[in-house]
Amino acid sequence: MPRWRGVEIDMNGNPTMGAAIAAPHAVPAHAIIAALDTDPAVGLSEPEAEARLARFGPNELLGHEPPGALSILMDQIASPVVALLAAAAAISFYFQDWAEAAAVLVVLAINTAIGFVTESRAQRSMEALRRLGAQRQRVRRGARERIVPAGELVPGDVVLVGEGDVVAADIRLLGTRGLEADESTLTGESVPVGKSVVPVAEAAPLADRPSMLFKGTAVTRGDGEGVVTSTGFATELGHIALLAGTAEPEESPLTRRLAELSAGLVLIVLVIAASLGAIGIMEHQDPLLMIKAAISLAVAAIPEGLPIVATLVLARGMLRLADRHAIIERLPAVETLGATTVILTDKTGTLTENRMTVARLAIPSGDIDLRKGLAGDGSANSTLRQEANQLLTAGALCNGASLGAEGKEQSGDPMELALLTAARRFGLERSDLELRMPECERVAFDSAAKFMATVHRNAGALLIAVKGAPEVILERCRRVGAGEGEALLDESLRSAWLERARSLGNEGLRVLAFARAEAREFRGEIGNDLTLLGLAALEDPPRAGVREAIAACRSAGIEVVMVTGDHAGTAAAIAKAVGFGPGPITVVEGRDLESENAVASLPERGVEVLARVTPRQKLELVEAYQRAGHIVAMTGDGVNDAPALKKADIGIAMGRRGTEIARQAAVMVLTDDAFPTIVEAVRQGRVIFSNVRRFIVYLLSCNLSEVLVVSLAILAGLPLPLQPIQILFMNVVTDVFPALALAMGEGDGHVLERPPRDPREPIIAKRHWVRIVAFSAVITSFTLGAMLLALEWEGVDRGTATTISFLTLALTQLWFAFNMTDTGEGLIVSNVVKNAYVWGALLLCILMLVAALTIAPLSHALDIATPDATGLAIAGGASLGALLVGAAVLSVLRASPLFSQG
């Protein structure tokens, strides 16, 4: 059997240990007991539990060791660029050119150190999953109740659960008493799920298995007992752990493209160096000179400052996004945001607030829409208000939740908390009501009966308050309240009320019916003589700003798809409320995605909502969109989202409501849980990519000009115009600061009005290469022209001529920063000219050049001979002339339709 991190798995990726029975939700309770060879009244014996622990393994989600420091370091140096520079350093050492060798090694050390620090993030999602199992569980063993570590649970253990417990294994229920569980982090269901012992169909989705409790979920109400059917990785939570662990994160587009660019540069360097070597040998030139020239070319061709600037720019982007409530944990993800073409978003807690509120009251005299502020403000007539008071009084009394002052210190079922909040808006406090009508009996909610009731003493009689499913309550009602009076609830009127309930349900609202009865005594049954008070429709309200954010995404050419484990009707209603449409919402359910072709075709079908989707299907959806060429952002906050979050190009977790597992699987965490923050993050990502492309064009223009200067001089039999250490000085000092300043641009106000760039387009497209070559040709021409002018006109020696060519090239590269403008900008009026960082960078670099000329140790290290005033004038004039010619060339290129974009 194959293994994954110590876990034996079958060919389908499922663990072979920990599962004692397949599809326990579909098997009757007595058959489960027989299959597991256990007795609910006695439980397992201690020897049998120990034997099963040895057989099935511990009930743990085993972690894995994060990559060590050595592994991270090796990743940093496993690069063709690093290999080439290391070879250049080795050759310099061999020929005892200590200064050049040391300079190359310093550059390598800086790049490696920055990469090591920024990429040392350990993979912690599996550790977070494991922490969910660090708890204790109440079990029955040897006819005695015991508390055992959750890791020691085995299939066949009889487990006792109650309100507030975190479920420690997958459990088939044998008995329930008003049991409900919050499964939102596992299934996406936004409200607790009622539990029962009744088996369901084997093909039932995870969210539709009331006969089961699942590891990692929480009991919100009632109590019950059951038998453990799966432990460890064999649980549903364990399956997700396997998915999250084996779903390898996608390498970011920027990382891929920078790697492709670096490999291409290395290939170019090797071809040029080999060509020059062959020419030199054919012309019987000095082999030592050719080796030195090859080193110069290697150093000149590679933009050593590129990884430094890229890292610093992305780090600055991280800080800017952090100020805007988005925490980025992997540097390249900052840029990937700008390339996003589709967002697969969770519903609960992402598009909605993950809290229930009473949206509508349907009462005999009409409807009250509480979302429009019609509660207790005098705008509703007296009859409506009186009927609403009666309904909400029943809702506050028939309630097991607790709501503190101003909503603080609340506990209990989210729907019951919503009822208490609505009652408070009408001036009804449960504590006050219970003082007047103290509770004396309670009929707990049962998922089979689908109702709850409380009995209260009221002026010498008993008041029975009832709430439950509309069809159940209406069947037990004989009258309907109408203000101060009552009317007979005949079949016609009952059908009308059922239709009102269905209509509210079709809007994605969860509907409860309320009734009351008066009696002199209570014998444990509420009977069938109730008076209907009305319906309350509850919703998980959309988050503020989501509609506008989705509109902004579409304006930016980004497709938004809701992916949820909730019911199709509820998901469609929420989608409509938050701005999907404007036409009918296209909904596909998870059961329709069982075939590979069905999943693969989704990116082309324009589906807006995917409902009842399993964790594995979420992962398959991400992969399908990626195969279709999309850059995928996936949002989520639950355990069930972790595999897809890890696989997506951009995994986005909610920081407040999100689980630790989701946060560790993601590369971006929203500290405000606000979907609109994603839009701002996308904007920043686009600006950052534009800046990255700008400084790469700048750096490559500078480096290619250095290659051309050296190559053409050698081919023409001229003195070597640049020493390798001088090229390193320019690449690491005078090039890096202007490039970094160019990367500080804020972007324009129209960045979100343009569609995403083509994910298949390289980081430097054909139009950019044309610009790079043209700029390099201009810089090369003026640099060689300055050297020839100094040699032939001024008659300087070769060392001084080399210094003049070095100064000309360095100054020209500095001024050329002003030619890195956006379309529609000129040399004088542009964002570059307005960028204070650019002016600061130029001043700093000029001071460094002055230091290189005037400080003797530095001049000696750089092999610089100080030129006279005429030589300085030649260098300065040639550099300014190159700037003006370069601006003219840029204008010509922009006039051409082929090279005018971007």
Question: What does this protein structure show overall?
Answer:
This protein has 902 residues and is an alpha+beta fold. It has 4 domains: 3-63 and 127-246, Calcium-transporting ATPase, cytoplasmic transduction domain A (Distorted Sandwich), CATH 2.70.150; 251-324 and 682-895, Calcium-transporting ATPase, transmembrane domain (Up-down Bundle); 328-353 and 543-673, Rossmann fold; 357-539, Calcium-transporting ATPase, cytoplasmic domain N (3-Layer(aba) Sandwich), CATH 3.40.1110.10. It is 48% helix and 16% strand. The chain contains 33 helices and 26 strands. The strands form 4 sheets. Strands 12, 13, 14, 15, 16, 17, 18, 19 and 20 form a 9-stranded mixed β-sheet that branches. The protein has an 8-stranded mixed β-sheet with strand order 10-26-25-24-11-21-23-22, sandwiched between helices. Strands 3, 4, 5, 6, 7, 8 and 9 form a 7-stranded antiparallel β-sheet that branches. α5 (98-118) packs parallel to α11 (305-323). The relative contact order is 0.09.
